[in-house]
Amino acid sequence: MGEVSGLTASAAARVPVAGLLIAAIAAILFSLKAILAKLMYLAGADAVVVMSLRMLFAGPVFIAMAGFYAWRARSATSTVLALTASERWQILLLGFLGYYLSSLLDFVGLQFVSASLERLILFLTPTLVALIGWYAYAKPILKMQWQGLVVSYLGIAFVFIEQLHFGGAHVALGSALIFMAALSYAGYLSLSGVLVKKLGSARLVAYAMSVSSLCMLIHFLAFESIETLNQSSRVLQLSALNAIFCTVLPVFLTMEAVRRIGAAQTSQVSMLGPVSLLFLGYWLLHEPITLIQLAGTGFVLAGVFWANRGVANAPVSKSKISQD
Length: 324
Known about the structure:
By secondary structure, the protein is mostly helical. The chain has one domain (about 30-315). The chain is built from 14 helices and no strands. It has helices at about 1-40, 45-75, 85-110, 115-120, 125-135, 145-165, 170-190, 195-200, 200-225, 235-260, 265-270, 270-285, 290-310, 320-324. The longest helix is centred in the N-terminal third of the chain and has 41 residues, at about 1-40. The protein is globular and about 60 Å long. Mean pLDDT is about 85; it is low at about 1-10, about 10-15 and about 315-324.
């Protein structure tokens, strides 16, 4: 009996470690997207080609997932899984904002800034979610969150001013586009709160990514010719890697990490993304690492950590408990 208990305790002790490792791998793979995009730009592709090929390879996986969830909803005896007309419109909006508009702005902006600056700006998304909640839904921002916001944006300012000195107007344009990408994705996260409780994260991501793939197809047919996809083998190989290892796989890994260690811990581990990209950019793209970049990255990570800590330590009101 003691031996069984020991095995159980040992297994239980390994589960958090496995969850943390899964979350770390997901964060690094998500960040690697910027490296692969930069390599495709060097090989002659542009932002629309990069995103179109990404959706061409990844879209079928999410469309198949969406089809499975739709079939399961229709075959279920309960009507809980069925979507209302309002929810369908919300999914269309979420797909447009979260994985089409945000990704498009991100990939276009990446043409003008370093991969490390791109990841730092995108890492501001949680702070933008907090600001949207404060402005649009009158959700209070705690003192620790405000402090985290200030520290994070100071870190971005350090890195931005340094790169502005070398890149000029191109860095300003790219940073603005990526910030708008972060804002678009923050809007997606803010609007998805109710739906994710009903559908679950996997089903919602499958639906939203399917909508995003359709939006990208419409965009491509409206502004590009099919010959545009006639790219070199290197671009096609990098696109396949981008779709599989930086889109599909980290989505599933993140969901598994949340299941094992919870959303809060998964969010904390995701801070490895900007740090890993700083060194990956140096290794694969020969982007310089400066003391200002390291200091700015430290400020951003510390600010986001402090803001998240404020959320985690916030007292839960009686009304909130009754709603749950």
